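ok here's O-fucosyltransferase family protein:
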Amino acid sequence: MGLKTRTAFGGDRLERLRNGGMVSRSRIKLWMIRATTSILLWTCIVQLTAFSEPWGLLVLKGWPSCFSQKSASVALDVQLSPELPLRVLPPKRVYKNNGYLMVSCNGGLNQMRAAICDMVAIARYLNVTLIVPELDKTSFWNDPSEFKDIFDVDHFITSLRDEVRILKELPPRVKRRVELGIIYTMPPISWSDITYYHNQILPLIQKYKVVHLNKTDARLANNDQPIDIQRLRCRVNFSALKFTPQIEELGRKVIKILRQKGPFIVLHLRYEMDMLAFSGCTHGCNTEEVEELTRMRYAYPWWKEKIIDSDSKRKEGLCPLTPEETAMTLRALDIDQNIQIYVAAGEIYGGERRLSSLTSSYPNFVRKETLLESTDLRYFQNHSSQMAALDYLVSLESDIFVPTYDGNMAKVVEGHRRYLGYKKTILLERRLLVDLIDNYTSGSLTWDEFSTAVKDAHAERMGNPIKRLMIPDRPKEEDYFYANPWECLQPQNDDEPFPLSSSI
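and the structure:
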């Protein structure tokens, strides 16, 4: 009896041990399944974050960090804060895609900026997909910057999605066609009407699927374009082309430093070595400098004009004002000698020797290099377009903008300041100024006579509302669209039409 009891009791214990072992093995299997599933899930999430496509990012949008309670609270704050509303993107424009347009912009920052605006308008009109433009890396400035290094590329693409489809690169199958040489490359004809692109460029895109326009400066006419095209050019320029957050932040820092000390003028002193060599303007230079500038002009084959009469060109108003002429002009206009003058320019040719007249007349003479620490500009050095972008932002904010030459930056900033409410821009009439300066220095005019004449000549040249000058069959001599995009602006008095511009 006792033996049976022990045997039965031992058998129950053995059964329980067996059942317990099975349960343990089941639990281990379940744990392994859960662990494997978790690993696979997190692998998928990590892979999703590697994609730049918006759908991949949306999967994780709003998820708090698994590693930091602080990160989770920040994410929650961003979602709930009424001060940070979710951005509503414009709806995508749906259209039959006729092909792909690639463009290579040439020139400096503002020449490329205007070209980008033109190319967006052309792509919209042709119903094609635009690939993010390639920027010039072979010009005199040798700037290696890509589009994304200067402009906020994601904002550029999404803000225009209701007008035109823009991609960062060609789709794989189309890219393979390009790699096989199935692409048509050409420079479009300068100052062409939009119908030229419909009649000449669109058939090429439909045939080859991809057309590459390898020069884009001044390729769309200033005038007589459909009003929707003109306004789209403005929308790209004033809204879609935002600089990168790094450039915007540094621009705000410079502006804050200047504002803390009061009002300021931005002087776009276009007196760099390349400008003087290209234009042949050597007034005020010594013999050695004249020879150096001439050698430089001959060293670059794309500067076609080699033999230049500097004196006659200056008298025609085709040279930038020298630093000495600029100082006299500012004084004649009664610009307060205590005001800050921020110089938006590269290295001034002749250095401190040529700047002495300006700095003695206006001691509060500053530039970004003197306002910022060297560490602030470390990542911008040797990137002329990024440095120019910083000057552009400061120029827009200034109380007065004074360009000494009507180059691309002067024109584009002038137009942008008109758009911001006709902010004062003194448009110097160089041909008249050099004549008045020569008469004053020769003793033919007193200072008061000289100053009065300068003020009278510029009373209506302050960036006030006016229509562009149109010259049929001479588009290069017309007023530039981006300097005065009046189709996108409103007169200061809505009851009065724009006055017409006249040649000077």
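+1. The first helix runs from residue 2 to 50.
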